[in-house]
Amino acid sequence: MTLPSTELNAIRDGLNRGEFFVEYLPIVSLGDQSCLGAEALIRWRRPNGVVALPEDFIPLAENTPLSGLITYWLIDTLAIEAGGWLRAHPEAHLSLNVPPEILGRGGLEYAAVKSGLGAFRAQLILEVTERGIPDQLGLMALHSMSSGGIRLALDDVMMSGTNLALIARCHFQIVKLDRLLTAQITPACPHPDWLRSLAGLLMASDLIVVAEGIETETQLQALRAAGVQWGQGYHFSPPLAIREFLAWYARKGKRTTDQQTDPLAPSLRAEASAPEEPSQ
């Protein structure tokens, strides 16, 4: 497959050469700071040794065939690396970003079933950005996924005109606040105006809110006081390789017998007993 630019061909070649890898960013309860799960983040180690972050290459791949290839590679990798952890810890969840343009085309569902990751659907959270609401086929796919037990998150929300009707129409159960909002919380400005809008959003819905980019105790305390339930960021942990994340979760994870921290979770023990194994 030849792509229309040197950059896109470099991404394709990087996938073929095994240059991509995954790190896991812990997601914690802001109440007791126990680990509830992780967000899977793609990295690309270029031939020169430089590690490229998603913002360096994902926008280039959007609306090209690579968008699907990267996502399907991620699903396979998560099944191999994190499938055993998900099976052993049915109280935990795993988030992954999904490009809206591949929703409803069948490939996502096929990849999840084929890899074995679909066996853990009640523990998966699919993130779609506020900037990329899918088309009609995508909306139908989101509805089907939600009905099938997968949780949906609206990512990179800036609280500027966030549309509750849109959230309901797309069956989003989780809203992720953009890190730029979190960065506005400082000792000099501990309660920016958007926190009042957030309080209204929380009062008007049963949404779970996740704050991205928490780096200070001031931010943690302000977000917790505003009612934000979950968070992620360097205040808790940087993104970790799978072995490091598993060790971190062993120390910080919420136990299966204490699932009440996750108000969205049904009983997940039945999911953990499913016979499917992730393919190796």
User: Measured on Cα atoms, how large is the radius of gyration?
Assistant: 18 Å
Number of domains: 1
Average pLDDT, rounded to a whole number, is 85
CATH A-level architecture: Alpha-Beta Barrel
CATH class category name: Alpha Beta
| Parts with pLDDT < 50 across at least 5 consecutive residues | 256-280
The CATH superfamily is EAL domain
Describe the global form. globular
Strand percentage: 15-25%
Plain-language structure description:
- The chain has helices at 6-16, 54-61, 65-88, 107-115, 136-147, 164-169, 179-183, 194-203, 217-225, 242-252, 269-272; strands spanning 20-29, 35-45, 51-52, 93-97, 124-129, 151-157, 174-177, 208-211, 230-231.
- The chain is an alpha/beta fold.
- The protein has one domain (21-250): EAL domain (TIM Barrel, Alpha-Beta Barrel).
- Strand 6, helix 6 and strand 7 form a beta-alpha-beta unit.
- The longest helix is centred in the first third of the chain and has 24 residues, at 65-88.
- Mean pLDDT is 85; it is low at 256-280.
Summarize the structure.
The protein is of the alpha/beta class and 280 residues long. The chain has a single domain, classed as Alpha-Beta Barrel (TIM Barrel). The chain has eleven helices and nine strands.
Produce the secondary structure layout:
Blueprint lengths: L5 H11 L3 E10 L5 E11 L5 E2 L1 H8 L3 H24 L4 E5 L9 H9 L8 E6 L6 H12 L3 E7 L6 H6 L4 E4 L1 H5 L10 H10 L4 E4 L5 H9 L4 E2 L10 H11 L16 H4 L8
Parallel strand pairs: 2-4, 4-5, 5-6, 6-7, 7-8, 8-9
Antiparallel strand pairs: 1-2, 1-9, 2-3
Helix pairs in contact: 3-4
